[in-house]
Design brief:
This protein has 5 helices and 2 strands. It has helices at residues 13-19, 24-31, 35-42, 50-60, 64-67, and strands at residues 8-11, 68-71. The chain is mostly helical and 80 residues long. It has a single domain (8-71), classed as 434 Repressor (Amino-terminal Domain) (Orthogonal Bundle). The two termini are 27 Å apart. Residues 13-67 form the HTH cro/C1-type domain. This is Putative transcriptional regulator. Keywords: DNA-binding.
């Protein structure tokens, strides 16, 4: 999901979930959110809170940066 600066957070939630042979519902139940939250996150339409990002990473036993990646946009916000 991009903001006005063009920054975004990419994620590999789908890849990790499929490799673990889990449904969206199963992952959601394990990290304390709804299936819909997992669905929109996998589609790139929702950026999770830090707490949720860490829960997901902890669930898969990986570092949070293995699943979530900051992608810097253009710094075209020059008002000076």
């Amino acid at each position: 999901m991009k903001n006005k600066f063009g920054d975004s957070i990419a994620n590999k939630v789908y890849e990790y979930r499929v490799l673990a042979r889990m449904t969206q519902k199963e992952l959601a139940e394990n990290v304390g959110v709804s299936k819909q939250t997992i669905f929109v996150m996998e589609k790139g339409n929702y950026v999770p809170t830090l707490l949720l990002a860490f829960r997901i990473a902890d669930f898969f036993k990986v570092d949070v940066t293995d699943i979530f990646t900051y992608e810097k946009g253009n710094d075209s916000n020059d008002d000076t």
